[in-house]
Amino acid sequence: MKLSVKLAILFTAAFITDLAVLLCFYLSIIKDGSDISVNEINTLLTVQIVTTLVLFAVIAFVLNKIILKPVKSLTDELAENADTPFFKDDGGFEDIRRGIEEYSDALHNEKQKQSRIIASISHDIKTPLTSVIGYAEMLQKPDISEERREKYSKIIHSKAHKIRNMINEFDDYLSGELGKHPNMQTLNVRKTCEEFTLSLREQFPADKLNIDLLCTSDGYISADPDRLYRVFMNAVSNSISHGQRQTLNFHIAVTQENGEFVFVLTDDGVGVTQEQLKCVFEPMYTSDQSRSVAGLGLAICKEIISSFNGEIYAKSEKDKYFSLVFKLPVCKDTE
Known about the structure:
- This protein has helices at 3-32, 38-80, 92-139, 146-175, 189-203, 225-242, 274-277, 297-307, and strands spanning 185-188, 209-214, 220-223, 248-257, 260-267, 311-317, 321-331.
- It has 335 residues and is α+β, with helices and mostly antiparallel strands.
- The protein folds into three domains: 3-80; 92-175, Helix Hairpins; 185-331, Histidine kinase-like ATPase, C-terminal domain (Heat Shock Protein 90, 2-Layer Sandwich).
- Strands 1, 2, 3, 4, 5, 6 and 7 form a seven-stranded mixed beta sheet that branches.
- The protein starts with a helix and ends with a strand.
């Protein structure tokens, strides 16, 4: 019920009550045979009615000034914003409540994810760091042979690089800069893949990684060459870390389909299960049993490809292969 209607009812009730009291008073005077004149009673009744009306006018003015105008102003404002979710009558406030709860849950999940990342980084650094300390202590022995000294030095160097790479990945991921401000260039796909393959072969010995390339297209893509190379490097590093083969075969295949270049980077390692496959792009994801999919490499790949307006996913069959697949739009030759 509107406030103005409530005030009208209240005034009417008060006026009728006041009038009834006066009539009762008038009847009691007549019944008692008082010598008060009818004119005096009429005057008293008139004064009472006028007083009541004046009092109501004052109260109405005050209520209008203090309550009714602000309420009307608020009502008009609500009417103007009736199309916004906040003011709709279809559960807008309930939507806001749910939104706050979802935001709170998202913050909690993000905190858990960051804690998981830090815990996993700590775990993964401890293993090579322990090796570095152990081999460094062995190098301090006075009777160590030159052959062992060289061997231990190479191991320390390798483990130190692994630690550095993990820390660099961690810094890159937390900085959030991988998907921002890419240095986009028009790249010839075949030439770019040949250069990447040659660089990868130079960095990884042939007895550890055998890389082959199948790409005959001379089409073009738009991408940041340094970050695209990072995707190739992370894919190879991921395969070496989790392939569990003494010599790993790594195949790069590039085809053109429906206005897109499809890059398929495949190793012949142990692969992952279908359940693990759903989580390989999650930062620092790992199974509790084997830690076979740990790291930030694939999460970084996803951010980079997304910044190129591309699509990325993975395929795998346990004990047979693991493939990283990404698609980039074809662009015209600007030369």
